[in-house]
Specification:
The complex is a heterodimer of chains A (284) and B (223). Chain A has 284 residues and is α+β, with helices and mostly antiparallel strands. Chain A folds into two domains: 2-48 and 160-283, no CATH class; 54-150, Alpha-Beta Plaits (2-Layer Sandwich). Chain A is built from ten helices and four strands, in the order ααβαβααβαβαααα. Chain A has a four-stranded antiparallel β-sheet with strand order 2-3-1-4. In chain A, helix 2 (15-50) crosses helix 9 (210-247) and helix 9 (210-247) runs antiparallel to helix 10 (255-283). In chain B, 34% of the residues lie in helices and 27% in strands. Chain B has helices spanning 41-48, 71-80, 96-106, 111-124, 140-151, 170-185, 197-201, and strands spanning 2-11, 15-25, 30-35, 56-61, 64-65, 81-85, 158-162, 189-193, 207-212, 215-219. In chain B, the strands form two sheets. A six-stranded mixed β-sheet of chain B has the order 6-7-8-3-9-10, with helices on both faces. Chain B has a four-stranded antiparallel β-sheet with strand order 2-1-4-5, covered by helices on one side. In chain B, a hairpin with a 2-residue loop joins strand 9 (207-212) and strand 10. Chain B is globular, with a radius of gyration of 17 Å. The interface between A and B is medium-sized, with 15 and 22 residues. The complex binds adenosine-5'-triphosphate and magnesium ion (MG).
Chain lengths: 284, 223
């Protein structure tokens, strides 16, 4: 209670300093927010691309239906496989017609159907990584009546590389700017501590508890961090609206990310002020 | 009460501020600490206040030993040992009452009790009429009284006074000393550092310690 009162009094005593530091923290966290937004949308995009990661197993025309049925059951029995469906030659042709209507006449003119029959293997979400794809493909290729197995090797690899780069960039830049925000709060708190050094001196002189001396500054740091977080939220949301309205469709961050961001802001604020006050108490 | 056993204090590069000092200040004693500038008077007081740890030897204050005191013990010691300075060290921009109340507030006195206790303490040092005056509106002697009231806030068993009259004139000095003897008469020990040998001579009942270059060279009442 005393701590909260003191922290609020500190804001009243130095509104410019506190406002500026919160604004700077807000800008730093805004960068984190933008990266969060970008990562989140990249992730959504990749997930939707990943849904299409499937393995096409092309079968020879002379494969017997019983063999195909057996392969189908066996492949479906692999734990990472969600479903296997059989695409007959006619299905393939229908699809080609639907997908590529511009070639309509061409399809009509065909006397024999050139498209192979195939099995389409769909993997479970979370199992769509290069290693699993490779393993399932090899299992399919082992059947004698299998002509070819396609899954876009490079493509799967690239997808995963992209994903890793995205995550790493966000982690590195996000933490860099989070550190910047923490440093700003720490500096502001050192100024606040300096402004109250006489009070701190007397408190120590007469035997106030260390935690009692520290708490108002922790609360102040946490509030500065939270305010910065709220500002960053507002700025990020404004950016999101702008991009959505004028450029292209993007998704807004999930609530947990925002909550986590605000919590992190408050936490970093409290942590950096804890460091500042700890250093001050050691020095005097 | 307060017991120093073979205490030395060495500052890096500056050498020894105190060397092998031992004494035992008993409950309710009044003692002067004298000696040249730099002889170690302030250092001794800071050791008793546990603001510093001795380099060698042991400082015991009530139940606490410098060798084993915990964080919690430190603030207990600081509450039981009042400290008064030559330059008062009051909070500027606050009134006399607020300066005393601040100490009560930060050491956990219940809110409702704070103002009455602060008023009683100011009355005890003869400053009740000036309770609402800001620190910079008070004379040196009055400021020193505020700082004494502040030091008494947590009902200490000893009052450390480091040249408390160094900035005061003759009359104000006598007033402060009278106040110390009043406080001492109620059972509180007083340990006062001063250069002023004339002043010491006026109080023949007091115990006198003399320091010289960090050594205790005279004790008027050794055990
Ligand atoms: N924090 C410190 N760091 C280094 N040296 C110190 C420190 N405090 C005191 N000293 C040294 O210790 C010695 C004793 O100092 P102290 O302040 O105890 O003397 P004093 O008797 O109080 O002197 P004065 O009458 O001038 O107040 C001095 O030589 C001083 O320079
Ligand atoms: Mg001194």
């Amino acid at each position: 209670m005393y701590a909260l009162r003191e922290a609020l009094a500190a804001f009243r005593r130095a509104p410019v300093l506190t406002g500026l530091s919160s604004a700077m923290v807000g800008l730093a966290l805004y960068v984190v927010g933008l990266f969060g937004l970008a990562t989140y949308n990249l992730r959504l995009a990749l997930t939707s691309v990943e849904e299409r990661v499937e393995i096409a197993v092309y079968l020879r025309d002379d494969a017997r239906q019983s063999e195909i049925d057996l392969a189908l059951t066996e492949l479906a029995g692999i734990p990472e496989v969600r479903s296997v469906s059989f695409i007959s030659k006619r299905d393939a042709l229908e699809r080609a017609r639907a997908d590529l209507p511009d070639f309509g006449e061409l399809w009509g003119d065909l006397e024999v159907n050139p498209l192979p029959q195939s099995l389409e293997v769909e993997l479970r979400p979370g199992s769509r990584d290069p290693e699993v794809v490779e393993r399932v493909s090899q299992a399919a290729a082992a059947y004698a009546f299998v002509e070819d197995v396609r899954y876009g090797q490079d493509w799967v690899d690239k997808l995963f590389t992209l994903r890793r780069i995205g995550a790493a960039t966000t982690a590195v830049l996000g933490s860099a700017f989070a550190v910047v925000a923490a440093l700003i709060i720490g500096t502001a708190l050192r100024i606040a501590i300096f402004a109250r050094r006489d009070e701190i001196y007397v408190m120590r002189l007469v035997g106030a508890k260390g935690s009692f001396i520290r708490r108002p500054f922790l609360v102040e740091g946490a509030i500065a961090g939270l305010l910065g977080g709220l500002l960053a939220w507002a700025l990020t949301y404004a950016t999101y609206r702008g991009v959505y309205t004028y450029l292209f469709e993007v998704a807004w961050l999930p609530g947990e990310w925002i909550g986590l961001g605000l919590l992190a802001g408050g936490f970093f604020g409290a942590m950096s002020s804890a460091l500042a006050i700890r250093r001050h108490l050691r020095e005097v | 009460m307060i017991k120093l056993t073979n205490v030395s204090k060495e500052y890096p590069k500056r050498g020894y501020a105190l060397r092998d000092v031992s004494f035992h200040l008993k409950k309710g004693q009044f003692a002067f600490f004298t000696g040249h500038s730099g002889s170690g008077k302030t250092t001794t007081m800071r050791l008793v206040h546990m603001a510093e740890k001795p380099t060698q030897g042991e400082v015991r204050v009530t139940g606490y030993s410098s060798e084993s005191v915990t964080e919690r013990g430190l603030w207990q010691v600081r509450r039981r040992v009042g400290y008064v300075f030559q330059d008062f060290r009051l909070l500027p921009g606050r009134t006399a009452l607020e300066n005393v109340a601040f100490v009560l507030e930060v050491t956990g006195t219940p809110r409702k009790a704070i103002v009455p206790i602060a008023q009683r303490l100011l009355a005890q040092v003869g400053l009740a009429p000036k309770a609402g005056a800001f620190v910079n509106e008070l004379s040196g002697g009055e400021q020193q009284r505020v700082s004494i009231a502040r030091a008494l806030a947590n009902d200490p068993f000893v009052l450390l006074a480091d040249e408390p009259t160094g900035n005061l004139d003759e009359r104000a000095t006598r007033g402060i000393l009278d106040l110390f003897w009043d406080i001492n008469a109620k059972g509180m020990a007083v340990l006062m550092a001063t250069h002023d040998l004339e002043l010491i001579k006026r109080y023949p009942h007091a115990r006198v310690f003399e320091l010289d270059q960090g050594r205790l060279v005279y004790d008027s009442a050794p055990d």
